[in-house]
Amino acid sequence: MDRARLSAIAHRWHPVAAPVSDASLHRLLDRLAPPPQGRVLDLGCGSGAWLLPLVAAHPGLTGVGVDTSGPALDAARDRAAMAGVLGRVEFVQADAATWRAGPFDVVVCVGATHVFGGPAGTLAALKGHLRPGGRVLFGDGFWEAGPSPAALAGLGAEPGELPDLPGLLAEAGRAGLEPGYGHLSTRAEWDEYEWCWTGALTDWALGEAAGADREAALEAARTHRRQWLEGYRGELGFLTVVLHDTEGSVVLHDTGG
């Protein structure tokens, strides 16, 4: 079964492809405070869960979302049309690691650091797309505890592959980005995300799929559930943080972020 299709199905119940609630998402977006006629870039945008509400909240804002997943981008365009912002956003099917345009006043990348080879490469890439004085919204995992052998096995990670929280923020500093407002995902947010991921896939497999697709979806849900519950639950954290460019002096529309 195609991985992009499987991921799109798994995120049906939780379009935010990260353990972040709607309330937390909107608090973070409020802290970005883009300029009235600003431009926003979302790298690894998925179905537009971050980009679309940000553009919708600011009538003069325009945005670009980049992702490799055709199904996710189709969903993003549908959601943009429903939100009435289709004329102010562009969705591009491309590799975010090699796509070039800009600069942008706000750059978003949540849960897509694998595209750039990890947090250090991601933060450098985001800074490269950013207008001087702009802001970044960055989200990635870190080890909250451990990691135990079970957590490493569940995530398919090597020791040292993910930092702890201070290490993750230190990477931002090395990229010339200063942490402002941040959010640490709660256990409830994690559990809701994981149950939605496995539940949506199981629901689709048993209610809509047949043959090889049915079995592939069920196996993916079972494997993911086991890796989560027996592996990284309680040890893997997730940070979403607003980062300020420390090398520019553009005045943004400040709301206290």
TrEMBL record:
Pfam families per UniProt: Methyltransf_25 (PF13649)
Please give the InterPro entries that the UniProt record associates with this protein. Answer: Methyltransf_25 (IPR041698), SAM-dependent_MTases_sf (IPR029063)
Sorted alphabetically, the Gene Ontology BP terms of this entry are: methylation
Query: Highest taxon of the source?
Result: Bacteria
Q: Does the keyword S-adenosyl-L-methionine apply?
A: yes
Keywords recorded for this protein, A-Z = Methyltransferase, S-adenosyl-L-methionine, Transferase
Q: Mention one GO molecular function.
A: methyltransferase activity
The residue ranges of the Methyltransferase domain are: 40-134
Keyword Endoplasmic reticulum part of the UniProt annotation: no
This protein is called Cyclopropane fatty-acyl-phospholipid synthase
The organism encoding this protein is Geodermatophilus telluris
